[in-house]
Amino acid sequence: MTLFGALVCFTLPADCHPETCLRFQILSILPLLPPKRLAVAIAITFLITVALAVSQAILPQSVLVFYLAVSLLTFVTYAVDKSAARNGTWRVPEAKLQLLALIGGWPGAVFGQQWLRHKSTKQPFGVVLWLMALLNGLLFAGLFTPTGDAMLHSLLASLG
Element (H or E) spanning 151, and its range? Predict the structure, then answer.
């Protein structure tokens, strides 16, 4: 019998009851990250969703401008870090790259990983990047709640 968990696939001996058998054989680690094309599609779909929310006057235009600006900044930061890695000079700390992803630059990080081929094979980094994207997505979804909407408009009013 084969059981599928969130991250791993186990095979149990035929005479083993899943609740009592402790001898699991790991068959394969299921992919933790979306394939490259899917990752780019997710980032593009997210940005299109933001643009649609703005076009329908659900969100202010500044939200789209923010996501595009932070994504561009993140992409450029990936390019600078890639260049530094090639030249053996000072590197951008990974924490800074992840912070940029968390505040909204994760689409730019995905584009940077795919087109610059930078930080695309480091699994721990990739897992954290998708966690940052998920957290940012939750914050974005919160903008559609009455509390989130009020907080956004209060923030925009305080900025001028």
Answer: helix 146-159
Burial of residue 90 (number of CB atoms within 10 Å: 0-12, 13-18, 19+): exposed
13 burial via Cβ count (<10 Å: 0-12, 13-18, 19+): exposed
Rounded-to-integer distance, Cα 159 and Cα 96, Å: 24
Residue type, 27: L
Q: In whole angstroms, what is the distance from residue 130 CA to residue 117 CA?
A: 16
Task: Give 104-153 pLDDT, tens digit per residue.
Answer: 999 999 999 888 876 655 667 788 898 999 999 999 999 989 998 899 98
Strands 25-29 and 8-11, bridge-based pairing: antiparallel
